Structures are given as structure tokens and as C-alpha cells.
Inverse folding.
């Protein structure tokens, strides 16, 4: 009796396998698609998407580094493309299978980290800047504003070594990606000096404190600033710092290990569709890299100078770049010194 | 008989091997390797990750963590013992009070830590109430300092102190206290000369649990300390995230474990003798 039941259930399992849809495994940043993006894709292509999320690029890399991770499509930031290529993790893209690349803004059709889009397709771009209460007069023009006595106890920085050192380096007129020990040492002294004024090193959590007016000025990712400004209206404003600021872009890439290359290409193509990309940018308050998608955005968003700053502002930005192991280690030591000072 | 025993122990033993010994072996082997260029580990075996621990920078973080954990444990003893005593003597409502101690555990630690942020913020409950009552004009800076970290640690781990003390108090032979009273000891004398010494195993067990948990804490310093103070847990976490230095992270966590063991072994041994 038991045995018969067991075999019966086995045939049930077999039934499941036969009916199962082709599957695509997608590993993305948390909270980075519109609610209908994935369900629509599943319906249209008759597939099932296993959708996983990560909170930091390092986490994503650690999860796919084995080369046997079970994921097909990942979303690395621009400064992770080269490391992932060096580790042999990314599959070459077949551009002939990707309609819609022409919809990308010209500069994202040939980005510095992958000029021919051989292994990645840009998805969303972002920046780090300053958000401040409009009651703060005069408004901070650049990073130096976050070192001023008047914001003491009401200023926060990101809890991220690349961002804090990046701001200090920019304030001193150096590159974000500096590997020069003397420049990094000078940036460390800047950060240590600033620490006395700081309320905290925090990331997205600062949003509520900005809205509540507890924080006067903060170093933030633009996406956080957008959400805070959506909640607080005209009481908050975003500044692209005068000394220069970090730019980053997240990209779609296919893992070398994937044996669903065709479906993965279809997925990228789907995300390149202007209506799909526009919906994501609209819901997530992000800047799309897709010119046709931008044209479809509702009015205040399409012309927002925060989401799409004018060219002279954009040229002040600097892309994050991958750092050598040695520099990484020096920077971590400096970060630890700042944190325990 | 012995076969039954083997089979009964197999699941727990298997789990221990799978989830404890194998990961420990991996961590140990990583700690001898070299940092890969982009995280991960690479070939040449080295001592270096251990040598780096003698760097005064990292050493001072270790010391700070030991001190923080020690203070938090001390506060937990001072708060936990009277609470446990109160519960054990509250007769019929004992289970109700015990429930109150345990209920917060039903929510995740992260959520409870966030709750503290809402209490301690400038526009949080405490500051708003004090301002409304006219006690203070400006909000007190309660959040993002070592005080907030201490509040978070004590709050988070106090039940680990209360429960073991409570269970030793429950086993306490009441006739000893009656005897002390008959011999003329005042209640406070009896408390410090009878109850506390007999509770030592519970206090020790609670202290060990609280101390170890506090030592490894990294969420609390980040969320309530605003990332301005770094404890050894944050240092380990950084090695596996932004620093991408797994071997050093592995070495750090092993040393942390060894330090805890070295500190606690004598205590545990004495605790056992106390039980006899």
C-alpha cells in the first residue's frame, strides 16, 4: 500500500516536470524593477523567472564567483565589469540578437567600461551628491559644505568607504579613483576632521530623517534623494557638488555559466524596450540610459534636472573604476582608521 | 541498545558536522590563504593574515569590543538579576512576566533595532514627549552615539541573562532562606550571602551568553551607533564586503573565537565546580 502510494506520487512529480516552463534565473539589486516587469515577461515568453536580489555589488560577486551559481542574468555596476571579465564570469553578448540597442543614449552605446557593449548593456545610471533642506541658506554648493560648522550634528555621510573617501578626494581636487597613498592619506585627514561634525554614517535610512528635518545636509545616492524629495516636496533639494562627484551605472550581463543564453538575450531585449525601461525608471525614480524610454516619461520627470542634469553638470562627474587589490587594501585600512578615530 | 543510541545521535551529529565542523574547516583554511584580486582566496599559503592582527589599529578595535561587551554584560547582570528575582517571587503571574521577557524574541532583531531608532531619534517618541512636557527645549542627541549602542546591546541580550538566572532561582531551596532568617539574617544579608552565591551558575551562564553575543554584534553599532564606532564584528563584516579580503576576515573571526574561548574557559570551569 505504502509502496503503491509512493510510486503514484512519483508519477505526479513527473507530471510536474513535463508541465514546467523554461526557467530564467535573474539576480538583480533589490527593488530595481517595476512590479509588473517580471510577471509581464513571464507571461509573454511563457517562462518562469527565478528572481533573486542582492544588497551590495560585493555580495553579488561573491554569489556568482564560483562559476556554478545557477544564475543566468546579473546586474553588475560599471566598476565590476572588468573584474568579472577577468574572472571569466561574463558571457559575450550577441549583438545581432539584441534589438533595441539603438534606443540607448549615444554615450551609453559606447560606455568607457565596455565601449562596444560586448559583455554588458547599461540599465540605469546614478550619481552621488548632496541633499539639503532648502531652509539652509546659502545652500551647500559642493562637498566643502558638508565640512562646515553650521551643519554640526545635522550632517550625515554614506557608510561606504568609496563614497566617503571619494567625496574627500574630490574636495581636495583629486580623482575619486585615486590610488596615490599621499592623496589617500590627505583624504583620510579630511574625513577624520569631518567626523566630529557628523551625526552618522548611514545610507538609505537618512531618508526619513531628511523628511523629518532632523538632518540638514547629507551625502546621498541620488535615488535616496529622489525618494526623500518625493516625500518632502520643496523642502529638500539636490546638488551635484561643484568639486565633482561619483557617477555609476548598473548593467545587464549574462553569466558565462548560463546554458540559457538565448532566453537571457530575449530578457535583455525585453528590458531594452522603451515602454518597459520607462516604466522601471518612472516607478523607481531612477535615470534611464534609454533615450526612447526617457521620451516616454511623464513631464516633470522627463525634464527633471536632478534625474537628467545638463551637460556642463554631467561633465563634472567621474565614473567609479575598479581598484587594484593593493589599493583596495590600503583604502580599507584608511577606512578602518577613520571609523575608529 | 547502543545501536539505538547511535541512530538517535546521528541527526544531531550529522548536522553538527555539516553546519559546524565543515564551515569551521573552510574558515580555517581560508585564513591561511592570500586575498584574491577581486575577493575570494588565492594560492600561496601565508601567515600574514594573523600577523596583521598585531597591528595596533586592529588590536585596539578588539580591545574596544571586549570592553563594550564587558560593560553591556555588567549592566545586564545588574538589571537582569533583580528582574529574575522579581519574576521568581511573583507567584501566579510568573508565567505572564516570563512571557513579557520572551515575547520580543518573536520579532526579528533587525526590526527591534529599528524600533529603537524610532524611539531615540530627534523626532522620536522620547524626545517628542520630553519636549511636549517642557523638560527640554532642544532634542537630546540620543541616537548615533556609544550610549545608543549600549542601549541596543543591553536591550537585545537582556533575556539571555534573565532566563538562566531565573531557572537557578527556581531551583533555589527556600528552606535555606528560612534558615537564614531564623538565624537572624536580615533579608538583604540573606540575598547577598545566600541567594546570590547560589545563583552564580545562572549568572555565569547568562554572562557568557550575553558577552559572546555582544562581542559579535555588528548590527547595533551600525544602526544605533551610526557607523561611528567600529566593533570587531563590523571589521569582520567589512572584510567580506567592501574590503573583499576574505582571508583576513577569516583570520579575524577565528581569533575572535579563540579569544572568547580563552576568556570563558576558566569561568565555565569554575561555574561547573560551583554546581557540584
Amino acid at each position: 500500500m505504502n509502496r503503491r502510494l509512493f510510486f503514484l506520487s512519483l508519477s505526479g512529480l513527473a507530471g510536474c516536470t513535463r508541465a514546467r516552463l523554461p526557467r530564467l534565473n535573474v539576480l538583480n539589486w533589490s527593488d530595481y524593477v517595476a512590479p509588473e516587469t517580471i510577471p509581464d515577461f513571464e507571461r509573454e515568453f511563457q517562462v518562469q523567472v527565478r528572481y533573486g536580489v542582492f544588497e551590495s555589488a560585493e555580495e553579488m560577486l561573491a554569489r556568482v564567483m564560483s562559476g556554478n551559481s545557477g544564475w543566468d542574468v546579473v546586474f553588475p555596476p560599471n566598476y565590476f565589469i572588468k573584474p568579472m571579465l577577468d574572472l571569466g564570469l561574463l558571457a559575450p553578448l550577441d549583438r545581432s540578437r539584441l534589438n533595441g540597442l539603438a534606443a540607448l543614449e549615444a554615450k551609453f552605446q559606447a560606455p568607457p567600461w565596455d565601449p562596444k557593449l560586448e559583455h554588458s548593456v547599461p540599465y540605469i545610471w546614478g550619481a552621488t551628491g548632496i541633499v539639503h533642506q532648502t531652509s539652509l541658506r546659502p545652500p551647500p554648493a559642493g562637498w566643502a559644505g558638508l565640512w562646515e560648522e553650521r551643519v554640526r550634528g545635522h550632517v550625515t555621510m554614506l557608510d561606504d568607504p568609496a563614497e566617503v573617501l571619494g567625496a574627500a578626494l574630490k574636495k581636495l581636487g583629486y580623482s575619486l579613483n585615486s590610488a596615490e597613498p599621499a592623496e589617500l592619506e590627505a583624504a583620510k585627514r579630511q574625513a577624520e576632521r569631518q567626523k566630529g561634525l557628523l551625526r552618522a554614517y548611514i545610507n538609505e535610512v537618512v531618508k526619513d530623517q531628511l523628511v523629518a528635518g532632523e538632518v540638514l545636509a547629507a551625502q546621498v545616492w541620488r535615488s535616496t534623494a529622489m525618494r526623500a524629495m518625493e516625500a518632502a516636496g520643496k523642502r529638500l533639494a539636490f546638488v551635484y557638488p561643484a568639486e565633482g562627484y561619483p557617477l555609476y551605472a548598473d548593467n545587464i550581463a549574462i553569466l558565462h555559466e548560463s546554458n540559457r543564453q538565448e532566453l537571457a538575450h530575449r530578457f535583455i531585449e525585453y528590458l531594452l524596450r522603451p515602454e518597459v525601461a520607462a516604466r522601471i525608471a518612472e516607478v523607481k525614480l531612477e535615470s534611464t540610459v534609454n533615450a526612447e524610454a526617457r521620451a516616454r516619461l511623464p513631464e516633470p520627470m522627463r525634464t527633471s534636472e536632478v534625474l537628467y542634469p545638463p551637460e556642463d553638470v554631467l561633465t563634472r562627474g567621474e565614473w567609479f573604476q575598479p581598484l587594484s587589490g593593493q589599493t583596495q587594501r590600503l583604502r580599507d585600512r584608511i577606512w578602518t582608521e577613520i571609523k575608529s578615530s | 541498545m547502543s545501536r539505538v543510541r547511535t541512530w538517535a545521535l546521528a541527526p544531531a551529529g550529522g548536522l553538527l558536522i555539516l553546519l559546524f565542523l565543515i564551515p569551521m574547516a573552510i574558515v580555517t583554511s581560508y585564513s591561511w590563504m592570500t586575498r584574491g584580486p577581486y575577493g575570494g582566496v588565492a594560492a600561496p599559503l601565508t601567515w600574514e593574515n594573523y600577523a596583521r592582527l598585531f597591528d595596533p589599529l586592529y588590536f585596539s578595535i578588539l580591545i574596544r569590543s571586549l570592553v563594550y561587551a564587558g560593560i553591556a554584560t555588567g549592566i545586564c547582570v545588574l538589571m537582569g538579576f533583580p528582574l529574575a528575582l522579581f519574576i521568581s517571587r511573583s507567584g501566579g503571574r510568573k508565567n505572564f512576566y516570563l512571557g513579557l521577557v520572551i515575547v520580543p524574541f518573536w520579532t526579528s532583531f533587525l526590526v527591534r533595532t529599528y524600533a529603537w531608532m524610532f524611539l531615540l531619534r530627534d523626532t522620536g517618541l522620547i524626545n517628542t514627549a520630553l519636549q511636549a512636557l517642557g523638560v527640554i527645549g532642544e532634542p537630546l542627541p540620543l541616537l548615533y552615539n556609544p550610549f545608543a549602542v549600549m542601549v541596543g546591546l543591553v536591550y537585545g541580550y537582556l533575556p539571555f541573562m534573565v532566563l538562566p538566572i531565573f531557572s537557578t532561582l527556581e531551583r533555589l531551596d527556600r528552606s535555606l532562606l528560612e534558615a537564614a532568617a531564623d538565624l537572624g539574617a536580615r533579608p538583604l544579608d540573606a540575598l547577598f550571602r545566600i541567594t546570590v552565591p547560589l545563583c552564580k551558575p545562572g549568572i555565569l551562564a547568562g554572562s557568557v551568553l550575553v558577552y559572546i553575543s555582544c562581542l559579535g554584534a555588528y548590527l547595533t553599532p551600525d544602526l544605533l551607533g551610526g557607523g561611528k564606532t567600529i566593533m570587531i564584528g563590523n571589521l569582520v563584516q567589512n572584510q567580506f564586503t567592501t574590503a573583499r579580503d576574505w582571508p583576513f576576515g577569516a583570520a579575524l573571526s577565528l581569533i575572535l573565537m579563540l579569544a572568547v574561548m580563552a576568556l570563558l574557559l576558566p569561568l565555565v570551569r569554575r561555574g561547573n565546580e560551583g554546581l557540584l
Q: What stands out?
A: Chain B is about 75% helix and 0% strand. Chain B has a mean pLDDT of 87. Residues 18 and 136 of chain B are 56 Å apart (CA to CA).
